[in-house]
Amino acid sequence: MARVSMGPGSGVVAGYHDGIPLDRWARVTAGRLLADEQPRRWAHSQGVGRKAEGTALALAPADRPVLVAAAWLHDIGYAAAVGGVGFHQLDGACYLRRLGVPPRVCALVAHHSGADAVAALVGLGPRLAEFPDERGPVRDALWYCDLTTSPDGLPVSYRARLLELRARRSPDDPVVRALADNGEERAAAVRRTEDLLLSVRFGHPAEVDDDRRTG
Known about the structure:
- The chain contains eleven helices and four strands.
- The chain is mainly alpha-helical.
- It has one domain.
- The chain is globular and about 40 Å long.
- InterPro entries: HD/PDEase_dom, HD_domain, HDIG_dom.
Protein backbone atom coordinates (compact mmCIF):
# COMPACT_ATOMS: atom_id res chain seq x y z
CA MET A 1 0.00 0.00 0.00
CA ALA A 2 1.38 3.39 -0.95
CA ARG A 3 2.03 5.86 1.83
CA VAL A 4 2.80 9.51 1.32
CA SER A 5 4.62 11.44 4.05
CA MET A 6 3.08 14.74 4.98
CA GLY A 7 4.24 17.90 6.70
CA PRO A 8 4.35 18.36 10.47
CA GLY A 9 1.05 17.73 12.18
CA SER A 10 -0.59 16.33 9.07
CA GLY A 11 0.18 12.66 9.64
CA VAL A 12 0.44 10.17 6.83
CA VAL A 13 -1.92 9.52 3.94
CA ALA A 14 -2.36 5.81 3.34
CA GLY A 15 -3.15 4.39 -0.06
CA TYR A 16 -6.65 3.14 -0.71
CA HIS A 17 -7.60 -0.53 -0.99
CA ASP A 18 -10.90 -2.36 -1.35
CA GLY A 19 -11.04 -3.36 2.31
CA ILE A 20 -11.53 0.25 3.43
CA PRO A 21 -14.92 2.00 3.18
CA LEU A 22 -14.32 4.46 0.35
CA ASP A 23 -16.28 7.37 1.80
CA ARG A 24 -14.61 7.06 5.21
CA TRP A 25 -11.14 6.90 3.66
CA ALA A 26 -11.92 9.97 1.59
CA ARG A 27 -13.01 12.01 4.61
CA VAL A 28 -9.92 11.10 6.63
CA THR A 29 -7.57 11.68 3.71
CA ALA A 30 -9.00 15.10 2.88
CA GLY A 31 -8.69 16.12 6.52
CA ARG A 32 -5.07 15.05 6.73
CA LEU A 33 -4.21 16.98 3.60
CA LEU A 34 -6.16 20.17 4.22
CA ALA A 35 -7.14 20.69 7.86
CA ASP A 36 -3.87 22.14 9.19
CA GLU A 37 -2.49 23.67 6.02
CA GLN A 38 -5.66 25.19 4.56
CA PRO A 39 -8.36 25.44 7.22
CA ARG A 40 -10.75 27.48 5.08
CA ARG A 41 -10.43 25.04 2.19
CA TRP A 42 -11.05 22.26 4.70
CA ALA A 43 -14.18 24.04 5.96
CA HIS A 44 -15.45 24.21 2.38
CA SER A 45 -14.62 20.54 1.79
CA GLN A 46 -16.49 19.56 4.95
CA GLY A 47 -19.53 21.49 3.78
CA VAL A 48 -19.41 19.84 0.36
CA GLY A 49 -18.84 16.39 1.83
CA ARG A 50 -21.72 16.66 4.28
CA LYS A 51 -24.05 18.01 1.61
CA ALA A 52 -23.08 15.06 -0.58
CA GLU A 53 -23.92 12.62 2.20
CA GLY A 54 -27.51 13.87 2.12
CA THR A 55 -27.71 14.32 -1.63
CA ALA A 56 -26.43 10.79 -2.22
CA LEU A 57 -29.65 9.34 -0.83
CA ALA A 58 -31.35 10.39 -4.08
CA LEU A 59 -28.93 8.25 -6.11
CA ALA A 60 -28.68 4.55 -6.77
CA PRO A 61 -27.09 2.75 -3.78
CA ALA A 62 -23.95 1.82 -5.71
CA ASP A 63 -23.37 5.47 -6.61
CA ARG A 64 -23.66 6.88 -3.10
CA PRO A 65 -20.14 6.20 -1.78
CA VAL A 66 -18.69 7.35 -5.10
CA LEU A 67 -20.35 10.76 -4.82
CA VAL A 68 -19.48 11.16 -1.15
CA ALA A 69 -15.84 10.22 -1.70
CA ALA A 70 -15.47 12.58 -4.65
CA ALA A 71 -17.08 15.38 -2.65
CA TRP A 72 -14.70 15.05 0.28
CA LEU A 73 -11.70 14.78 -2.03
CA HIS A 74 -12.59 17.32 -4.70
CA ASP A 75 -10.22 20.07 -3.51
CA ILE A 76 -7.23 18.08 -2.22
CA GLY A 77 -5.28 19.29 -5.26
CA TYR A 78 -4.73 22.56 -3.39
CA ALA A 79 -2.60 20.79 -0.74
CA ALA A 80 1.15 21.34 -1.06
CA ALA A 81 1.87 17.64 -0.55
CA VAL A 82 -0.15 16.72 -3.63
CA GLY A 83 2.16 18.59 -6.00
CA GLY A 84 1.60 18.64 -9.74
CA VAL A 85 1.09 21.39 -12.29
CA GLY A 86 -0.89 23.86 -10.18
CA PHE A 87 -4.32 22.96 -11.55
CA HIS A 88 -6.12 21.55 -8.55
CA GLN A 89 -8.65 19.32 -10.30
CA LEU A 90 -5.96 17.56 -12.34
CA ASP A 91 -3.41 17.47 -9.52
CA GLY A 92 -5.92 15.95 -7.12
CA ALA A 93 -7.04 13.33 -9.62
CA CYS A 94 -3.47 12.27 -10.45
CA TYR A 95 -2.60 12.04 -6.76
CA LEU A 96 -5.64 9.88 -6.04
CA ARG A 97 -4.78 7.61 -8.96
CA ARG A 98 -1.31 7.07 -7.48
CA LEU A 99 -2.94 6.08 -4.19
CA GLY A 100 -5.09 3.41 -5.87
CA VAL A 101 -8.42 5.22 -5.62
CA PRO A 102 -11.11 3.83 -7.98
CA PRO A 103 -10.81 5.44 -11.44
CA ARG A 104 -14.37 6.72 -11.35
CA VAL A 105 -13.69 8.85 -8.27
CA CYS A 106 -10.44 10.15 -9.78
CA ALA A 107 -12.29 11.17 -12.94
CA LEU A 108 -15.07 12.93 -11.05
CA VAL A 109 -12.47 14.93 -9.11
CA ALA A 110 -10.63 15.74 -12.34
CA HIS A 111 -13.65 17.23 -14.07
CA HIS A 112 -15.59 18.69 -11.17
CA SER A 113 -17.45 21.97 -11.48
CA GLY A 114 -16.54 22.90 -15.02
CA ALA A 115 -12.84 22.06 -14.96
CA ASP A 116 -12.75 21.37 -18.70
CA ALA A 117 -13.32 25.00 -19.67
CA VAL A 118 -10.64 26.22 -17.28
CA ALA A 119 -8.18 23.56 -18.47
CA ALA A 120 -8.69 24.65 -22.06
CA LEU A 121 -7.80 28.23 -21.15
CA VAL A 122 -4.56 27.24 -19.41
CA GLY A 123 -3.40 24.68 -21.95
CA LEU A 124 -4.14 21.59 -19.88
CA GLY A 125 -7.08 20.23 -21.85
CA PRO A 126 -5.19 17.20 -23.21
CA ARG A 127 -3.89 16.29 -19.76
CA LEU A 128 -7.35 16.52 -18.23
CA ALA A 129 -8.74 14.39 -21.06
CA GLU A 130 -6.69 11.47 -19.72
CA PHE A 131 -9.58 11.09 -17.28
CA PRO A 132 -13.02 10.22 -18.72
CA ASP A 133 -15.71 12.81 -18.08
CA GLU A 134 -18.73 11.00 -16.68
CA ARG A 135 -22.07 12.51 -17.65
CA GLY A 136 -25.04 11.78 -15.43
CA PRO A 137 -26.57 12.28 -12.00
CA VAL A 138 -23.42 11.61 -9.97
CA ARG A 139 -21.43 14.23 -11.86
CA ASP A 140 -24.36 16.65 -11.59
CA ALA A 141 -24.64 16.03 -7.86
CA LEU A 142 -20.94 16.65 -7.24
CA TRP A 143 -21.10 19.94 -9.12
CA TYR A 144 -24.27 20.87 -7.21
CA CYS A 145 -22.67 20.18 -3.83
CA ASP A 146 -19.58 22.24 -4.68
CA LEU A 147 -21.41 25.10 -6.38
CA THR A 148 -23.93 25.58 -3.57
CA THR A 149 -21.40 25.59 -0.72
CA SER A 150 -19.51 28.73 0.31
CA PRO A 151 -15.74 28.85 0.88
CA ASP A 152 -16.53 28.61 4.60
CA GLY A 153 -18.64 25.48 4.17
CA LEU A 154 -22.06 27.12 4.45
CA PRO A 155 -24.99 26.39 2.12
CA VAL A 156 -25.58 29.13 -0.46
CA SER A 157 -27.47 29.52 -3.71
CA TYR A 158 -25.70 28.93 -6.99
CA ARG A 159 -26.11 32.61 -7.85
CA ALA A 160 -24.55 33.69 -4.55
CA ARG A 161 -21.65 31.31 -5.10
CA LEU A 162 -20.92 32.81 -8.51
CA LEU A 163 -21.10 36.35 -7.14
CA GLU A 164 -18.65 35.40 -4.40
CA LEU A 165 -16.32 33.74 -6.89
CA ARG A 166 -16.27 36.80 -9.14
CA ALA A 167 -15.64 39.08 -6.15
CA ARG A 168 -12.78 36.93 -4.85
CA ARG A 169 -10.98 36.46 -8.17
CA SER A 170 -9.88 38.95 -10.80
CA PRO A 171 -11.74 39.21 -14.14
CA ASP A 172 -8.64 37.80 -15.87
CA ASP A 173 -8.57 34.69 -13.70
CA PRO A 174 -9.17 31.60 -15.88
CA VAL A 175 -11.79 30.37 -13.42
CA VAL A 176 -13.81 33.55 -13.98
CA ARG A 177 -13.19 33.62 -17.72
CA ALA A 178 -14.35 30.02 -18.04
CA LEU A 179 -17.81 31.00 -16.84
CA ALA A 180 -18.44 32.52 -20.25
CA ASP A 181 -17.82 29.12 -21.81
CA ASN A 182 -19.62 26.76 -19.47
CA GLY A 183 -21.57 28.80 -16.94
CA GLU A 184 -24.82 27.42 -18.31
CA GLU A 185 -23.52 23.85 -18.07
CA ARG A 186 -22.79 24.41 -14.39
CA ALA A 187 -26.20 25.97 -13.79
CA ALA A 188 -27.90 23.08 -15.59
CA ALA A 189 -26.16 20.52 -13.38
CA VAL A 190 -27.38 22.37 -10.30
CA ARG A 191 -30.94 22.55 -11.65
CA ARG A 192 -31.04 18.86 -12.53
CA THR A 193 -29.88 17.88 -9.07
CA GLU A 194 -32.36 20.22 -7.39
CA ASP A 195 -35.13 18.69 -9.51
CA LEU A 196 -33.99 15.19 -8.55
CA LEU A 197 -33.95 16.05 -4.85
CA LEU A 198 -37.42 17.58 -5.07
CA SER A 199 -38.80 14.56 -6.90
CA VAL A 200 -37.43 12.21 -4.25
CA ARG A 201 -38.63 14.42 -1.41
CA PHE A 202 -42.19 14.42 -2.71
CA GLY A 203 -42.22 10.74 -3.55
CA HIS A 204 -42.08 10.99 -7.33
CA PRO A 205 -38.60 9.86 -8.32
CA ALA A 206 -37.49 11.46 -11.54
CA GLU A 207 -36.22 9.35 -14.38
CA VAL A 208 -32.47 9.39 -14.02
CA ASP A 209 -30.21 8.91 -17.00
CA ASP A 210 -27.59 6.61 -15.51
CA ASP A 211 -25.85 6.11 -18.82
CA ARG A 212 -22.31 6.88 -17.69
CA ARG A 213 -21.26 8.33 -21.00
CA THR A 214 -17.86 9.81 -21.41
CA GLY A 215 -17.04 12.84 -23.43
